[in-house]
Amino acid sequence: MNNEPVAWMAANELLFSVVKDEIYHIPLYTNPAKTLTDEEIEEVHNSQDFYNDWEMFSYKDFARAILRKAQEK
User: Does the N-terminal or the C-terminal CB of the chain have fewer CB atoms within 10 Å?
Assistant: First the structure.
């Protein structure tokens, strides 16, 4: 991943530009995506009960657990 700015921000404004100049000179970067390995996903799946009262798989609860795991990285 390259670590180059994707835009520049003005010092006293909430404006930004994709071109660096004398007004827009504070670099803005993207954050790298946090990913999980297949093993980490399986670990989350095995550590939680994602079934509700009707024995239906709760995708929302699983998705939230996956997001929490990724945020730990």
Answer: N
Together in a domain, 2 and 21:
yes
**Tens-place pLDDT, residues 19-55:** 888 888 888 888 777 889 999 999 988 887 776 666 6
Residue with tokens 């609860």: 61
Q: Tally Cβ neighbours within 10 Å of residue 17.
A: 14
Q: What is the 3-state secondary structure (H, E, C) of 9-48?
A: EECCCCCEECCCCCCEEEEECCCCCCCCCHHHHHHHHHHC
Report how far residue 51's alpha carbon sits from residue 61's, in angstroms, rounded to the nearest whole number. Answer: 9
pLDDT on residue 28 = 87
Mean pLDDT computed over 3-22: 84
Contact 16, 25 (CB under 8 A): no
| Together in a domain, 25 and 42 | no
